[in-house]
Write a structure and sequence with these properties.
The chain is an alpha+beta fold and 210 residues long. The protein has helices at residues 9-18, 47-52, 54-60, 87-100, 129-137, 160-169; strands spanning 37-43, 66-68, 76-83, 107-116, 120-126, 149-155, 174-180, 182-189, 200-206. 27% of the residues lie in helices and 30% in strands.
């Protein structure tokens, strides 16, 4: 679906500003079976950051073809690790993360600047922690295209022009900074009919404060 991954936030923003074709349909890549689950590691922002996203979410919810993210679903993604995992597989994932993340410290995350990828409206998450955690978990990950972010709207092929006023208005906004002290392995419903329903937390891994 997506031919080019952005290597910088600036590249993504400039592409969005000049794009003339409709943006992508995020739902087109989701599986149809209703029980589909993706296990993935993520960081959940604190309540004050979610509060700060309220006005942006409200504006995006008024744009045709944009599905604003519900408050409970706001997160900073690290890595998806398994589809439809069994209980044994979840235990393996938790043990593996505990091993590779031993000694990994907490990190500060600054959420600022609305932006847009091919299939999602996002807020940039400025941090060295997410790339560090991803590299330890998946040494084959291409960190050139690791742009930490908090998705605020998933797209159903809206025109780029219809979103420009909203995202431009929030381009200079800061949603706040916080210290990420833990990461969570979440079981996320990802069927087309269930996506963005509340996830289940399978495990929490604490990051050291050193």
């Amino acid at each position: 679906m997506i031919g080019t991954w952005f290597e910088s936030y600036g590249e993504a923003w400039n592409y969005f500003l000049t794009r003339e074709t409709s943006l992508e349909n995020f739902w087109s890549v989701l599986p149809e079976p209703e029980g589909s689950i993706l296990a993935g590691w993520l960081i959940e922002p604190p309540p004050q950051v979610k509060d700060a996203a309220h006005d942006l979410l409200a504006r995006l919810g008024q744009v045709e073809g944009v599905v604003a993210v519900p408050r409970h679903f706001l997160h900073i993604w690290i890595h998806g690790v398994a589809h439809d995992p069994t209980a044994d597989r979840i235990s393996e994932l938790v043990d593996g993360a505990r091993e590779v993340w031993a000694g990994q410290g907490s990190c500060e995350i600054a959420l600022r600047h609305a932006n847009c990828f091919h299939d999602a409206a996002i807020v940039e998450a400025h941090t060295d922690g997410v790339p560090r955690l991803l590299a330890a978990l998946n040494p084959d990950a291409d960190l050139r295209v690791c742009l930490p972010h908090m998705t605020v709207g998933y797209l159903r092929s809206p025109s780029a022009a219809s979103m420009r006023d909203v995202l431009t208005d929030f381009r200079g906004k800061e949603l706040g900074s916080f210290q990420a002290d833990n990461v969570r392995l979440c079981l996320i419903p990802i069927a087309r009919s269930t996506f963005m329903r509340p996830w289940m937390v399978a495990a929490t891994h604490s990051l050291s404060s050193a």
